[in-house]
């Protein structure tokens, strides 16, 4: 004869409870059963631990750019909320000069904090069509492809090499580069100091 406790633990209801998939009445029943039967309470703990281990084993770390952009967006919104006026930023082009962005590059709050290991971004302007930021790249930026926006940047400090399709582009302070659409590209820092750039993404 099947043990009713074993039957209950093998029914799948405990997994559904851990995942939050039960109705309030079903969840209350599980909690009552766990209170009354140590074996059910223990099985719940085992299932929870197994699911946690599975999640850790299969977790995918977000790309450094996604994390940095998210943090930069939060920072920018906080600055606007605290009274920073929305700025009109000059569009980057082949005639742009570092001095065109001195107003933002010289701000003491728009600097690279200590301890950054990959990428740091400070947004300085946003419209639905154009996002402009100051970015510090410590080591490299892995392959990206843009289909719906142009990426342009102007090197402020440091040097880097851009691999854009089959081409290698060597950039130093004052150099401007526009990434072609639909072209895989990556950036490698070639200086001892981080490569600091003004970067702009313009919707197509």
Automatic annotation (TrEMBL):
Pfam families annotated for this entry?
Answer: Cupin_2
Which domain of life does this protein belong to? Bacteria
Q: Which Gene3D superfamilies match?
A: Jelly Rolls
Q: Which InterPro entries match?
A: Cupin_2 (IPR013096), RmlC-like_jellyroll (IPR014710), RmlC_Cupin_sf (IPR011051)
Q: Where is the Cupin type-2 domain?
A: 142-198
| Segment forming the signal sequence | none
State what protein this is by name. Answer: Cupin type-2 domain-containing protein
């Amino acid at each position: 004869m099947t043990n009713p406790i074993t039957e209950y633990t093998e029914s799948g209801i405990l997994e559904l409870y851990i995942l939050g998939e039960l109705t309030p009445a079903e969840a209350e029943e599980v909690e009552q059963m766990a209170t009354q039967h140590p074996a059910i309470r223990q099985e719940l703990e085992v299932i929870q631990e197994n699911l946690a281990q599975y999640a850790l084993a299969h977790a995918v770390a977000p790309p450094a750019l996604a994390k940095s952009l998210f943090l930069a967006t939060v920072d920018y919104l906080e600055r606007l909320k605290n009274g920073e006026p929305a700025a009109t930023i000059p569009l980057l082009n082949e005639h742009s000069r570092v001095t065109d962005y001195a107003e933002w590059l010289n701000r003491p709050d728009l600097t690279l904090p200590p301890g950054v290991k990959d990428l740091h971004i400070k947004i300085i302007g946003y419209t639905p069509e154009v996002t402009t930021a100051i970015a510090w790249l410590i080591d490299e930026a892995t392959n990206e492809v843009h289909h719906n926006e142009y990426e342009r940047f102007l090197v402020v400090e440091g040097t880097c090499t851009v691999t854009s399709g089959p081409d290698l582009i060597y950039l130093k302070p004052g150099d401007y580069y526009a990434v072609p659409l639909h072209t895989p590209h990556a950036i490698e820092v070639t200086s001892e100091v981080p490569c600091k750039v003004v970067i702009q993404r313009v919707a197509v």
